[in-house]
Amino acid sequence: PWSSPQAFPLPSLPRKQPTVLVVCGPAQNGAIGLVCARHLRIFDYEPTIFYPKRSPDPLYRDFTTQCEKMDIPFLSYLPTEVQLINDAYNAVVDAVLGAEAEAGEGREPCAAILATLKHIRIPIVSLDVPSGWDVEAGSSGGISPDVLVSLSAPKQCARSFLGRQHFVAGRFLPYDVQKKFELNPPEYPGTECVVALRAPR
Fold this sequence. Notes:
Blueprint: E1 19-24, H1 28-42, E2 46-50, H2 58-69, E3 74-75, H3 82-88, E4 91-95, H4 110-117, E5 124-127, E6 133-134, E7 138-139, E8 147-151, E9 165-169, H5 175-180, E10 195-198
Parallel strand pairs: 1-2, 1-4, 2-3, 4-5, 5-8, 8-9
Antiparallel strand pairs: 6-7, 9-10
């Protein structure tokens, strides 16, 4: 499911200045972030990617090449002065760790990235599992996103999510997987691939 996450308009992102910083980690969630950046570009947003530890996986390299060919800029470093990030972007997409992270938040470059993301004021959109969270127990000193986009289905930690909006992108989850894990997917209106589980607050 991670090869086709969808982009969606964010109410906090006015079209006049639709700048988004997509922060990608080295594993699967980072690849999801690359795909997200590509979709955002298609929808006329202006993503910038920070991807400090690139995976040697050929598929991830392909995603990186696609972003480069779409003229999406890559940052060489993440400013530690959070005001620079607040001023330059309208939102941050957190694709640093995700569901498969173990103790990755304690290792570089992830630890420094999370330290910076914890202090920014612009909205954070986390993909699948907010970085620094345990996939089951929830937040344990990780970031506090404004928006959570659960991929396939909400993880156990989503019960601890207190942000403004929660979306799920899992319309194309195979029926055998739904049955195996006893999932009860929401109704997707029309041709939407993403559905809101929590209305804006």
